[in-house]
């Protein structure tokens, strides 16, 4: 039986099937823009390879776009018809795809975690679990997965750099910055074009207030980004975050217009409504406006896309970002339809669906109330779910915009008890004092006076 690059058996029977599978996995792990091309080549090399069909379904689900779920379901149907030729590990992957495409990411995570326990060098299961735990707001599970798996890896395995990059990000999200940075830099030493490692180290520097270092790091690495997917947009967003903290607003707007929201960028394939691009754009415009920066008509194109995605609740963390655009452009009817779709979303017993209804919806409603200057209502909507917002997914740096929204509303409503609640929360969770952070300094100053 054929084996993949990590030495695991795969049930492909054609001469080019294993090589095509490895190429598709490598493109996925390295965030290459040609991942769809590699996946198509895999399916052409061996259309009867069940795990290959499953992989195509996984990639459809990774878009977090409702319109692509049907594509995943079709891939699942094909994989199921072929699974009699597959081994137990590959059948487990197919079961995970069935759960995920059926709206049960929580159940899929359980399958991936079990695969990793039995096959610790299954880089596909590991990376999907890393991804899924992150977007479920569970960094401790990310770290546990890394700690369980890393002893089985070495530089002799091709995806070792990916493991180091994932260790970097998992440890960073758990607040263990020293080992995180060490792992990320080790990955970059192996491959300076490792996007996930660059991303993890940027997070470390963001959390430690090392803004000039962060800008310099990303500038240094940028020549290695050719051929990257829209992860490149997110790295430019990170660079703009460093500039924002330095109050270099012109630099932020330049990066917005010419880098991470430049829909005609020659470096990447623009995906202007994919969840991470929406989060990048909306959160940055929102932060700029909180700091009194006029963002012009930049909200309009995001709001147009938001209207087209009403009812698509697959990415819980993206929903408040869609709402930022609808609220900023005064589209009250669309905003109310979006809130209604969140209220009615999914099945009662599904944890991901419940998060949309019980957390994403009130936070999104608070975004709308904040824009309408009903600040007391915004505070009242967020306060009960403040400690649960992490379940929406997203990093500390990304979640930060929602905390800043709550703080802004509390300050403008004159609710100093809630200002203290938020400042104390931030002070206990972030290594940089709120007095030294652009989004929190005013709140800390008001409390001190």
Give your account of this protein's structure.
The protein contains 23 helices and two strands. The protein is an all-alpha fold and 449 residues long. Residues 266-270 have low confidence and may be disordered. A two-stranded antiparallel sheet has the order 1-2. Helix content is 67%, strand content 1%. The protein has helices at residues 17-29, 35-45, 50-61, 69-82, 88-101, 105-118, 123-135, 139-149, 160-173, 177-190, 195-207, 211-221, 231-245, 249-260, 275-290, 299-308, 318-328, 332-343, 351-371, 375-382, 396-413, 416-429, 441-448; strands at 2-3, 9-10. Strand 1 (2-3) and strand 2 (9-10) form a beta hairpin. It is globular, with a radius of gyration of 22 Å.
Secondary-structure topology with pairs:
Layout: E1 2-3, E2 9-10, H1 17-29, H2 35-45, H3 50-61, H4 69-82, H5 88-101, H6 105-118, H7 123-135, H8 139-149, H9 160-173, H10 177-190, H11 195-207, H12 211-221, H13 231-245, H14 249-260, H15 275-290, H16 299-308, H17 318-328, H18 332-343, H19 351-371, H20 375-382, H21 396-413, H22 416-429, H23 441-448
Antiparallel strand pairs: 1-2
Helix pairs in contact: 1-2, 2-3, 3-4, 3-5, 4-5, 5-6, 6-7, 7-8, 8-9, 9-10, 9-11, 10-11, 11-12, 11-13, 12-13, 13-14, 13-15, 14-15, 15-17, 15-21, 16-17, 17-19, 18-19, 19-20, 19-21, 20-21, 21-22
Number of strands: 2
- Mean pLDDT, rounded to whole units? 95
Helix content: 55-70%
* Rg, Cα atoms, Å: 22 Å
Give the distance, in angstroms, between the N- and C-terminal Cα atoms: 72 Å
Main sheet overview: 2 strands, antiparallel
